[in-house]
Design a protein that fits this description.
- The protein has 100 residues and is mainly alpha-helical.
- The protein has a single domain (19-98), classed as Arc Repressor Mutant, subunit A.
- It has three helices and two strands.
- The radius of gyration is 14 Å and the shape is globular.
- One of its GO terms (molecular function) is DNA binding.
- One of its GO terms (biological process) is regulation of DNA-templated transcription.
Length: 100
């Protein structure tokens, strides 16, 4: 998303009222705090699972990928999406993007 200096069309605060599961909500909260920057999957896993006994799921990357699929279906009705990651320097990670 190119920063044009104008605010996003959908208020980011509206994401807090979305009907989300507990892990989905935590991920959205993390992405809201990072907005408009991206956060890597590894960093997201560290934040989500660092305080869990056993360190979270065996493969947190797969778990996060599945949750992102669900979020990509839910967030557009609130005017937001999480774009699919592209390859290349500076494109890794997840971020929120306002829909046009």
């Amino acid at each position: 998303m190119v920063n044009t200096g104008s605010p996003p069309r959908a208020p980011i605060e509206g994401l807090s009222s979305a009907s989300l599961g507990p892990i989905e909500r935590r991920i959205v909260e993390i992405l809201v705090r990072a907005y408009p920057r991206s956060i890597t999957r590894d960093r997201l896993a560290d934040i989500l699972y660092s305080n869990e006994a056993g360190g979270g799921p065996d493969n947190p990357g797969v778990t996060i990928s599945v949750i992102m699929i669900r979020l990509r279906k839910k967030l557009p009705r609130l005017g937001w999406t999480i774009p699919k990651a592209r390859s290349g320097p500076g494109t890794e990670g997840y971020h929120l993007e306002a829909l046009p």
